[in-house]
Amino acid sequence: MKNQYRVNEQIHVREVRVVSDNGAEVMPTRKALDLARQQGQDLVEISPNAQPPVCRIIDYSKFLYQQKKRQKEMRQKQVKVETKEIRFGPQTDEHDYQFKLKHAQEFLEDGNKVRAYVFFHGRSILFKDQGEVLLLRFANDLEDYGKVEQMPKLEGKKMFIYLAPKKSGTVKQSQQKRDRLAAEAAAKAQADAKKEQDAKNNGLFANAKNGADALKKLAADNADKKEDKKKRFTFTGTGKIKRHHAYHSHILTKKTKKQKRNLDHQTLVDRTNLKQVRDLLCLR
Questions:
Q1: What 8-state DSSP symbol labels residue 282?
Q2: Would the pTM count as exceeding 0.85?
Q3: Mean pLDDT value of segment 175-200
């Protein structure tokens, strides 16, 4: 860079355009050199191809430092574009395809290019049409993130397609894409509304997996228990309610012969428990 610019007596043209903070002025080269010496600085030619050449009065070492600093900043601002590879097989399953599609979206959003290819191993080269359809679907699913630089092309046992990122800005969507997104949003809103209604009806099991089945099973179990409880009660001819003893046949309960004889008989329901029993039997 040191020999890139002509300085002082190296400038051999008749006149130059001297630029400064106050503006620009065309003057003879000799006058510009005298002006630079008076200020204790150098006359640097910064644009030799202009008519007349453009010069600036500045300390040459300071000028070189500013140029190096500016170039360093420009290199830091430059985005390094990489090419990311994604490999498919001619019979890639749906889960694997969606997984790689997500990675391709991230690559394109980061400003990188994507080179996707289908590798045909052995006799799978017979499915090259299937591989081409796969790559075309891949490009179509990425239409909002990138553009196709090269259509699918077979090279040896590999079929390539190249995608480049779109420029940042508003992403244009086709009418078909907008209709599909609107339909998906409406379906999602309907599903959310149904889920909210089920949550109000089902309570605890609303958000659980197979919650509706669990709720039905719980209701059936409660009904069975209720029926079992009803079997413990009988009605007398006068309308009174008798109950069997709860532990009459419990094998783990130790009873004497006298206790067993007493348990063989039914007893009337106590008045304090009568209301609960009538509620259990759905009686008013």
A1: T
A2: no
A3: 77
Query: SS3 of 92, please?
Result: coil
Over the stretch 87-135, which tens digit does the pLDDT of each residue have?
A: 998 888 889 999 999 999 988 888 889 999 999 888 878 878 888 888 8
In terms of Cβ atoms closer than 10 Å to its own Cβ (0-12, 13-18, 19+), residue 159 is: buried
Q: How far apart are CA 263 and CA 259, in angstroms?
A: 6
What are the tens digits of pLDDT across the range 254-264? Answer: 677 777 666 66
For residues 111 and 141, the answer to whether their CB atoms sit within 8 Å is: no
**In this structure, are residues 201 and 219 in contact, taking their beta carbons and an 8 Å threshold?**
no
What is the per-residue burial (b if ≥16 Cβ within 10 Å, else e) of 99-119? ebbeebbebbeeebbbebbbe
CA angle centred on 151, ends 139 and 134, rounded to 5°: 45
Helix, strand, coil percent values for the chain (each to nearest 5): 50, 20, 30
> Which strands form 113-119's sheet, in the order they lie side by side?
83-88, 113-119, 158-165, 146-155
* Helix (H) or strand (E) run with residue 241 in it: strand 241-243
Any alpha helices (H) in 203-270, and if so which ranges?
211-230, 257-263
Q: Say yes or no to pLDDT of 172 above 70.
A: no
Phi, psi (deg, nearest 5) at residue 246: -65, -35
Q: Judging by DSSP bridges, how do beta strands 23-28 and 15-20 pair with one another?
A: antiparallel
